[in-house]
Amino acid sequence: MSSNEPFVFYTERRLVALTGTKAKNLRELTESLRTVPGSCVFYHTHHQYVSHHFERPVFYNDFATWVSEALQERRLGEELAAIDLLSFTSVRQLREAILAVLERYLAGKQGPPRECPPGEEFHFARSQSFIMRTGVVAGSLEDFVDKLSHVSNLSLFYHFFEARLRLERPTNDFSQWLADQGHERLAKAIDRLDPYAMTLDELRDEIVRLTRNYARG
Amino acid sequence: MPTLQDYQEIVGPEVIDEMKVVAARVGSRSLQNINSTPVGGGVAEILTRFIPLLRELGIDATWDVIKGNQAFFNVTKAFHNALHGKQEEISEEMLEVFRETTEANLREMNLTGDVILVHDPQPAGLIAKKKEIGRQWIWRCHIDISSPDRRVWNFLRPWVEQYDASIFSMPDFAQELSIPQYLVAPSIDPLSDKNKELEQGYIDSVLEKYHLDPGRPIVTQISRFDRLKDPLGVIAAYRMVRRRHDCQLVLAGGGATDDPEGAEVLREVQQAAADDPDIRVLELPPFSDLEINALVRGSTVIMQKSIKEGFGLTVSEALWKRKPVIGGAVGGIRIQVINGVTGYLVHSPEGAANRLSRLLGDRALRKAMGENGYLHVKQNFLLTRHVKDYMLLMIALDHTQEDIVHLD
Fold it and tell me: A131–B180: do the CB atoms touch at under 8 Å?
C-alpha cells in the first residue's frame, strides 16, 4: 500500500505533575506502582531521555536509580535497568514487567524492608504532554530526511517514544509513514533501532544515515 | 529591562521560538500575578523580569501587591519559618491578624486576570473571591514545605485546596492535596547582575579588593552565615586539602546583621579562620550582586556544602559560570549537581575534601564539568524555561486530568 500523505512533524511541550505519593522502601514502591496513573510509569522510565542531551545517565529509569542509590539494592537496580522497554507497546505492559521484577525480588527477601535515608524518598510524578504542530511537513523521502535533521529533540521524542508507548501505535511514526509510502525495508530498519541505547541526537543521526543509505539504493 | 532579543543571544533562537509557539496557544487569556512585596526577595526579583517578557510575548500580564502592616508581616515571617519546619509559636491572635489582613485585601484588591497566579502564603486567602468572580486560580509555593509545621499548614490548606492548581519547586515539596500539583523548578536570570558576563578587569579588581591572589586556586562558598550551610565544614575540608594543594578559601555572604543566629555563626567562622591568612570571611552588604558574580567567576571550585537546603540556586549560579560545584547531597542541590558530571555530591567534610583535592589537581576535569554544568543550567534552570512553564500552566488549567493534550 502506498499513500501520498505528507509526514506532518509534531512536537511536544511537557509539564511535570506531582502526585504527592511517595515511597521509602520496596514494599511501598511496589504498592504505589500498582495504582499510580500510567503516565507516572511513562515519566519515570522516559524523562531522562529529554532532560539532558549532553550526558548519558547511568540508568535511564528512575526506579533503577532510586533502588540502587537510595536503597543500595544494586542487584535489583541492575535488573530494573535491564527491562527491555522496546519490547512493550503499552504502558500497561511496561508497568506489569516492572512489578514482576519487584515482586519476584520481594518474594525472595527475608526480614524487614530496607528503608531509604530520610529526604531520599521516591516521589511519584507524571508527565503531561502538550502536542502541537511544528509547521514542518515533508512530502518526499529526500524532504523527510532533510527536515528530520532540523526538528527539535522533543519532536523526535514524540514521534518515536510517545507515539509507540503512550498512543499505543504499532511502531514509531516514521516507520509507519515510510511503510505507507512503500518504503517497507527502510521502515523495518528504523523500527529495529533501539532508541533506549542512545541519546536523542544519536538516534536522529542513525535515522538520517539509514534513510540516506536507502535512498542511494 | 532586557528584551526577548537579549535573551535570544544567550539561549539561542530555538528557545525563544518555542516560547512564542506556546504564547500563541495561551491566546487572549490575561495573567495577574499577586505577591506580598514589590521589591526585595526572590519572588519580586523574578516577577520584575517575568512581566515584561510575558508582555513582549503578547500576554496581558500584570502584577499586584497585597497590603499589610508590620504585625501581618511578622505573622507571615513566622508562617514562613514554620512551613520550613522551624519551631515557631503560632498563637490564635496571629491567625486572626492573618485573617483580618486577608479580609482587608479582599475588599480593596482589584482582581482582573483571567488566570490569577498567587505567590506564596501571604496572599493565599484571596482565593475566597473565587466563589464570587470565578476565574482560574493557581497557587505558587516558592518555599520548601517538605516537612511543614502541621498547625500552619492545616490553617492554610483549606484555602490552597480551593485553587485550580498549585506549583511546587521540588518533588519533595509535594503534599497530599485534592488539587493538581505541578513541578516548576526555580530559575536564574542570566542577565541579572549576579549572573551576567563580566569584564576580566572588573573580576580582577574585585579579587584585588579582597586581597585574593588570582595566580593561586580559589575555593569559594557563597551563602548566608547559617549552620545549615555548614561553613565550618567547608573550613574543615579546606584544611584537609591544604596539606597537598595550595589554595585560598572564600566564605562570602550576608544576612548576619539582622539575624542574631547569623551573627553568632559569623563569629564562629571568623574564629575558625583567624589563624589562616588564606581564608577570607566576607560579610557582604545587600546589593553586592556584581561582586558576588566576580568572586564566583574568579574562583576555581565552588562549594555549597549545605546540610539542609530548599533549592539552593547558588549552585545553578555557579554552574552557569562554568564552575564545578561540590555540594551537600540535600534538597535541590541533588538535581543541579549531577554527581560526577557537573560536580560532586558529598555527605561530610571528608567527602568534600576528597573531591576538592581531585578537582584542584585536574584542570581538564574542571573544564569538562564546568561545560556540563553550563549546559545543564542552560537546558533546565534559566528564566526562559520558567516563563515557558508558566505559559504551559495557563494552558494546562483546561486539561488537568489529561496526560496527552492535543493542541492542534
Answer: no
